[in-house]
Amino acid sequence: MRTPVTNLLLGAIVLMFVVETLLGGSTRIEVLVFLGANVPELVAQGQWWRLVAAMFLHIGMIHLAVNGYALYQLGHLFESLVGSGRFLAVYFGAGVAGSIASVIFTRGVSAGASGAIFGLLGALLGFLLKRRDRLTPAARSLLAQLGFWAVINIFLGFTVPQIDNAAHLGGLAVGLAAGFLVAPRQIRRAGTAG
Fold this sequence. Notes:
Blueprint: H1 4-22, H2 29-35, H3 40-44, H4 50-53, H5 61-82, H6 84-105, H7 114-130, H8 137-159, H9 165-181
Helix pairs in contact: 1-5, 5-6, 5-7, 6-7, 6-9, 7-8, 7-9
């Protein structure tokens, strides 16, 4: 299995959605706050753990489905390119950056893995841009598609109410920087006995 961390993260967000549902529903503010959604006032009071906990909570089935699908697609690709450890560092780094941006620039309760997922999108963009002179036609096409989806989603974030674009942009910025810095996975080749 080349992408165990992606699969583990997907399982964790689904498990937390089940917990949200059992506690009264994923759209109930009190449930989200209890489980660790970002609330600027509470984070400012020292509840920093919310910056991570919020990444595992989702508000409604559509939110879960969209983020789960994006994590499935982007996570499997990025983890297979850079390895599990680097993937995990980028995911949590971008996710926390997205949570911090959300706490600074938005008001009210926020939750979701979007900051981390935008971080993966940015990291893939940075990773491919750094190697753009050596890309195959398929990789160039992927780079163009990722750029298109980044622009579309940022535009939607500015135009659709209830989307936490601060989290998206915070995660994207950290992910993009990480993508330029992160090294690809080392492929181990089997040796021959002499």
